[in-house]
Amino acid sequence: MSTSRREAERSGYPTFLYFLVPLAAVGIESFASLHFPRMASLDLPLLVTIYFALMLRSPIAGTFTGAIIGILQDALTRQPLGTFGICKAIIGYLAASLGVQIDTENPGARLLICIGFTLAHNGIYWLVVRHLLAQPFHWNWVHELVRALIDGVIGVVLFGLLDLAKQRDY
C-alpha cells in the first residue's frame, strides 16, 4: 500500500487530459442522454469528477474540478446554472478528502466509492432542487440504488482506463 501511495503522489497525466477527459465526459453525457434516454442514468461527469478528485488528493483542486465540470454540465442541460456545479463541487471536495485518507487503487474500494458518491450526489441534487430552488422533484430509492450500481460498475472500468494514461516518474 505504501508503494502504491508513493507512486500515486509521483504520477500525473499529460496536461491536455485534464481538459479533454472532462469535456469528453460532458459531451458524451449530453449526446447520449439526448439520443438514448436509457443512458440518462449514467453520470460520466460525476465519475470523472470523482476520479480526478481522488487522484489529485487536494480538496481545493477537487472542489474546483467538480465545480467546473458541474457548470459545464449545467450549460448543456436545461438545469439552472450552478445546480450540478454545487453538487459536483461538494463531491469533488469529499472525494479528494477521502483520497488522502485511504488507498483508492483497489477495484472494490473504487466500486464502493463510486456507489457512495453517486448516492451522495443524488441526495445533494435533491436538496438543491427541492429546497433551494423550490422545484418539485420526485425521489425513488430503487431507481437511485440501481443508478448508483450502474455508475459504480462503469466507474471501476473508467478508472482502470484512466489509470493507463498516468505518467509515472519512478
Which helices and strands occur, and which strands form pairs?
Layout: H1 2-10, E1 11-12, H2 15-35, H3 44-56, H4 59-75, H5 83-101, H6 107-132, H7 141-163, E2 167-168
Antiparallel strand pairs: 1-2
Account of the protein in words:
With 170 residues, the chain is mainly alpha-helical. Helices cover 75% and strands 2% of the residues. It is built from seven helices and two strands, in the order H-E-H-H-H-H-H-H-E. Strands 1-2 form a two-stranded antiparallel sheet. The longest helix is centred in the last third of the chain and has 26 residues. It is globular and about 45 Å long. The two termini are 16 Å apart. The relative contact order is 0.15. The mean pLDDT is 87.
Largest β-sheet summary: 2 strands, antiparallel
Percent of residues in helices comes to over 70%
**Oligomeric nature of the chains:** single chain
What share of residues are in beta strands? under 5%
Order of helices and strands: HEHHHHHHE
Mean pLDDT: 87
Distance between the termini: 16 Å
Count of helical regions:
7
pLDDT below 50 for ≥5 consecutive residues: which ranges? none
Question: How many strands appear in the DSSP assignment?
Answer: 2
Radius of gyration: 16 Å
Shape: globular
